[in-house]
Design a protein that fits this description.
It is built from twelve helices and five strands. The protein is of the alpha+beta class. Among the domains are: 131 residues, no CATH class; 122 residues, Histidine kinase-like ATPase, C-terminal domain (Heat Shock Protein 90), CATH 3.30.565. A five-stranded mixed β-sheet has the order 1-2-3-5-4. The two termini are 60 Å apart. It comes from Streptomyces gilvosporeus.
Length: 411
């Protein structure tokens, strides 16, 4: 590598070290202390350069005025008044100008700034001692007065400019937050409108069709004399009524503000839990063996029990569609103890019966995806895979006790 290239690499590394140092703890300390200390050092240097080390009174007053700048942010008016003797006796400029700038930036007020400006002009214009003042030196006095006016006006203008800039930055930040809040409210309104549209579509399409199914099943139940057909019609009618109740709940949630808060969900149909699993299995018309080892509502939350119910429901639906005539085993039981307790749900089916007719039911392939997302949102896991004997197994584990249950309830 050439010498210029190596020098460039060294400069880059040095710049990187400086940036890292500036972002570190020392850099933060320097950024916090420098605005307070640097003006004091400048004022002390001004006092020493103007008065030297021999004039005790002038140097002492000037150093006191410079040191007072350490408190200028807490007591800007008092510090400015303390710096005026330094200007009048010690002929220093930095300390009173910095004090007046701080006063304009932190305690603006027309009357206050006007009086302070007149005091600074007087301290600058009148000599020390006052007996040295020569009223007849018009040209010299005019130049000193102009210089004093500029000395007073400059820090006031700078302080007001900095304060105005800070206020504008705050206004811009407030406006930005307002715009973000308005965008969020607009998005919520769009979501609410879309929920209402979906609710109307679901009610108009699904509720109408299911109602017709329920009416037809009721007519068959009344008119037929075949006991098996009557039992089947009764089951179809019960399923239709249950579907309409759950559809009513979903439509109510979609119409509720905020996506189904407690206020919007009042009066809606209760959601299924583990107590309704036997009834679900009974009405599934499948060869199911149920092994349940959980007392519903004993230690877990309704959210977890509802997720377990939906998992079994979707798995049985998939068996009905893809493995007609297969034997199914449903196991629901706890695992672990205390805060580590979890609810294990397993649905395992064997190979389909070749002689059974598969129903032509539509499917979008989203059922297992939705179950996995539901399990993950509750802090659990879901596994779905084929088995070696040609069947399929769906296994889910949900947190069901202690911290896990509390988290699931919050979810």
């Amino acid at each position: 590598m050439s010498a210029p290239g190596r020098a460039g690499r060294r400069r880059e590394r040095a710049a990187a070290r400086l940036r890292a140092l500036a972002r570190g703890v020392w850099g933060q300390q320097v950024r916090r202390i420098a605005p307070v200390v640097v003006p004091v050092l400048l004022a002390v240097a001004d006092a020493v350069l103007v008065n030297g080390l021999k004039l005790a009174l002038e140097l002492g007053v000037s150093v006191v005025a410079a040191t007072a700048l350490l408190l200028r942010r807490r007591f800007p008016l008092l510090v400015f008044l303390v710096t005026l003797p330094g200007l009048y006796i010690g002929y220093i400029w930095f300390a009173p100008m910095i004090g007046l700038y701080t006063l304009a930036a932190r305690r603006p007020g027309r009357v206050r700034l006007g009086i302070c400006a007149v005091l600074l002009i007087a301290a600058h214009f009148l000599p020390y001692p006052i007996s040295d003042f020569e009223p007849t030196h018009y040209r010299e006095n005019t130049l000193v007065l102009i210089d004093a006016c500029v000395t007073a006006a400059a820090p006031i203008a700078m302080g007001l400019l900095v304060r105005t800039r800070g206020e504008l930055a705050q206004r811009v930040e407030d406006l930005t937050r307002s715009l973000v809040r308005e965008d969020r409210l607009l998005a919520d309104r769009v979501k609410t409108t879309e929920r209402a549209r979906l609710a109307r579509e679901m009610h108009d399409v699904v509720a109408h069709q299911v109602s017709l199914i329920s009416l037809q099943a009721g007519a068959v139940q009344v008119s037929t004399e075949d006991e098996a057909a009557r039992a089947g019609a009764r089951t179809i009618r019960e399923l239709s009524v249950r579907t309409l109740e759950e559809l009513r709940h979903m439509v109510g949630v979609l119409r509720a503000d905020g996506g189904g808060g407690t206020a919007g969900a009042q009066g809606l149909a209760p959601q299924p839990d583990l107590e309704e699993l036997p009834r679900l299995i009974e009405m599934s018309a499948l060869d199911v063996t149920y092994e349940g080892g959980v007392v519903a509502g004993a230690t877990g939350t309704k959210t977890v029990e509802r997720a377990a119910f939906r998992t079994v429901q979707e798995a049985l639906t998939n068996v009905r569609k893809h493995a007609p005539g297969a034997q199914v085993r449903v196991r629901v039981g706890p695992e672990g103890s205390g805060e580590a307790e979890s609810l294990r749900v397993e649905i395992r089916n064997g190979p389909p019966d070749e002689t059974a007719m598969a129903p032509a039911l539509p499917g979008g392939g989203h059922g297992l995806v939705g179950l996995r997302e539901r399990a993950q949102s509750l802090g659990g896991t879901l596994e779905a895979r084929p088995t070696s004997d040609g069947g399929f197994v769906v296994r889910a584990v949900f947190p069901y006790g202690g911290t896990g249950a509390a988290a699931a309830g919050a979810g």
